[in-house]
């Protein structure tokens, strides 16, 4: 930004970082002062698979689960969407175990019985329940904005 990097002492330099989901709403004067405008797209297939692994790091996952296949099915999902799918899938086995039980019966279930591995079916169910949060029209709007104002 204008004037922020004029300090001789490099330890006193200020860096401004801004993020928005609506870059087209940024005031023109502010946009001019934010010299670099970078669009971070939705994750690629490799990125989606990496996000699945990160989100499932502390979760017991069945060996038959095919993360590559799941990553393919998550095309168009944001990082937050993928986190939601993982969270939902990880709770599926517990939901099946407690369905129809009273709160008292649920408290009686040994903890190890609730610690079931996440299966491929759990992911399929979670995918059916968790929708993408980014519309195709929004992606086109980002592309148009980047073509007009973005940095390379």
UniProtKB/TrEMBL annotation:
* GO biological process, alphabetically ordered: microtubule severing
Where the record annotates domain AAA ATPase AAA+ lid, the positions are: 65-105
**SUPFAM superfamilies per the UniProt record, alphabetical:** P-loop containing nucleoside triphosphate hydrolases
Alphabetical list of Pfam families matching this protein: AAA, AAA_lid_3, Vps4_C
Instruction: Identify a single GO molecular function assigned to this protein.
Output: ATP hydrolysis activity
A GO cellular component annotation in the UniProt record: microtubule cytoskeleton
Q: What keywords tag this UniProt record?
A: ATP-binding, Nucleotide-binding
Q: Where is the ATPase AAA-type core domain?
A: 7-42
| Residues covered by the Spastin/Vps4 C-terminal domain | 107-150
Q: Which family does it belong to?
A: Belongs to the AAA ATPase family.
**PANTHER family in alphabetical order:** AAA DOMAIN-CONTAINING, KATANIN P60 ATPASE-CONTAINING SUBUNIT A1
- Name the chain's protein: Katanin p60 ATPase-containing subunit A1
Say which species the protein is native to.
Cacopsylla melanoneura
Q: What lineage is this protein's organism placed in?
A: Eukaryota, Metazoa, Ecdysozoa, Arthropoda, Hexapoda
């Amino acid at each position: 930004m204008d004037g922020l990097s004029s300090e001789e002492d490099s330890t006193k330099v200020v860096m401004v970082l801004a993020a928005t989901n609506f870059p087209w709403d940024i005031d023109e004067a502010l946009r001019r002062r934010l010299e670099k405008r970078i669009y971070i797209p939705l994750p690629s297939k490799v990125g989606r698979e990496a996000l699945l692994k990160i989100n499932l790091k502390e979760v017991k996952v069945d060996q038959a689960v095919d993360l590559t296949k799941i990553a393919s099915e998550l095309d168009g999902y944001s990082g937050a969407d993928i986190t939601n799918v993982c969270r939902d899938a990880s709770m599926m086995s517990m939901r099946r175990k407690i369905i129809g039980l009273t709160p008292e019966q649920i408290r009686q279930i040994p903890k190890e019985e609730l610690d079931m591995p996440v299966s491929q079916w759990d992911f399929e169910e979670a995918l059916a329940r968790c929708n993408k949060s980014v519309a195709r029209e929004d992606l086109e709007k980002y592309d148009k904005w980047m073509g007009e104002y973005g940095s390379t």
